[in-house]
Amino acid sequence: MKNIKVASSISVSWLYILLLSLGISACNSCQAQKEPTASDGYSSKVPHPDGTGKVYLKREIAGIMGAGGGGWLERNSRQEEENVTLAIENMALSQQSVVADIGAGTGYYTFRIAPKVPAGRVYAVDVQDAFISALNEQKEALGLSNVEVVKGGSQSPNLSDASLDLAIMVDVYHELEYPQEMLQAIHKALKPDGKLLLLEYRAEDASIPIKELHKMSVSQVNKELNANGFQLYRQEDFLPIQHFLIYEKVGE
């Protein structure tokens, strides 16, 4: 009888430990479930037909244009529609400027900037292997030794700290999967007096024939850039359909 009581006591003890363990596990699970799935300004929604469903500071991130859109980037009408020559003329480039074309695509801007900085360098950065191959082929065909093709990541352009005079994103920023992380990485890659130039189709103008999520307003761009250590340095409206927005680093 005594042995039965001992066994019963041991069973009760193990049962108590088991229940306590399960209780702790359940509490941890509850705590994990209560932790927000969105952080640092990110949230999610039902995706727009042209979007990802990922939202940053109340803006749905647009779907990325694949390498199949390379023909559109190189269309014959692009200069007339966007006045790329005027945009480059207003970048305040010197012969020694070090520039990063982030989201370079086919290199439409890269290979027009390179001759302007003969003693400098242009980093043509992209995340898509098809574009990387195309950029390398064009670089060799043109014999441009001051162009370096870089495979970027979704959260960083993979460039050295304090190496850039100017970073540009031409109709690219609205597609960044991780805008916050990318902006912070660009911030590090810029020299103390380096600048970031964004060209974005104007969301304020409904007549511009570009899909909704592939346009941005100045107020939204400012909100996102201000949240990541940048402030508006120069805004111009001389381009036909795009904002020309230059940002400088703050807190340096």
Provide a descriptive summary of the structure in words.
It is a single chain. This protein is of the alpha/beta class and 252 residues long. It folds into two domains: 2-35; 44-249, Rossmann fold (3-Layer(aba) Sandwich), CATH 3.40.50.150. Helices cover 34% and strands 26% of the residues. It has eight helices and eleven strands. The protein has helices at residues 2-34, 70-73, 78-82, 84-89, 110-113, 129-142, 179-189, 218-226, and strands spanning 42-44, 51-56, 59-62, 98-102, 121-126, 147-151, 164-170, 190-202, 215-216, 230-236, 242-249. The strands form two sheets. Strands 4, 5, 6, 7, 8, 9, 10 and 11 form an eight-stranded mixed sheet that branches. It has a three-stranded antiparallel sheet with strand order 1-2-3, with no helix packed on it. A hairpin with a 5-residue loop joins strand 10 (230-236) and strand 11. The longest helix is centred in the first third of the chain and has 33 residues, at 2-34. It is globular and about 45 Å long. The model is unreliable at 1-37 (pLDDT under 50). Residues 101-196 form the Methyltransferase type domain.
Layout of helices and strands:
Elements: H1 2-34, E1 42-44, E2 51-56, E3 59-62, H2 70-73, H3 78-82, H4 84-89, E4 98-102, H5 110-113, E5 121-126, H6 129-142, E6 147-151, E7 164-170, H7 179-189, E8 190-202, E9 215-216, H8 218-226, E10 230-236, E11 242-249
Parallel strand pairs: 4-5, 4-7, 5-6, 7-8, 8-9
Antiparallel strand pairs: 1-2, 2-3, 8-11, 10-11
